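SAMPLE LOG
Freezer: B-3
Tube label: C17
Construct: single chain, 174 aa
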Amino acid sequence: MTTSASHPKTTAAATGESGQSEDARGAGYVGMFRTAVRDILGGLAGTGVALPQSMALGVALFVSMGLEPSAGALAGLLGATALSLTSGIAGATAGMISAPNGPVIMLLTTSLTTVVAAGVTGDGLLLALIAILLLTGLLQFLLGISGGGQLIKFIPYPAVAGLVTGIGLLMVLS
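STRUCTURE (predicted):
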């Protein structure tokens, strides 16, 4: 008994010029479709988490500065959209979408309270917020390219969990 592998002409006819069978080529398209569907569903899940958090962050910051809540919600929405597009184009990690908005809102609100106590109001307050965010982003960028993220392995898990829990309690109590 002979197999098609022993007959080169039969094998070439069954697999086509590419060397793949019809079933293998079809499975590749199905796999790509499944991956695309999973990516879309993952993106929608990430959006469902990130957009409300970002809008709430924007509202909390803008209200603490004496500005309209609707402007804060729009700023949060635009910020989340810009972050998602930028991280997607740059090929960033999936963890990028769920930023720690709880700690961020506490730190920024405290920073803005300090700036207001110094007598800055109105447009100066918005400029102070922009300066704080730009300097924070620059510091994060420098830490990232210098490998500073490796330092997290030296911080014990209970310390991180305690920090996040404490921030959550402060948010609930305030």
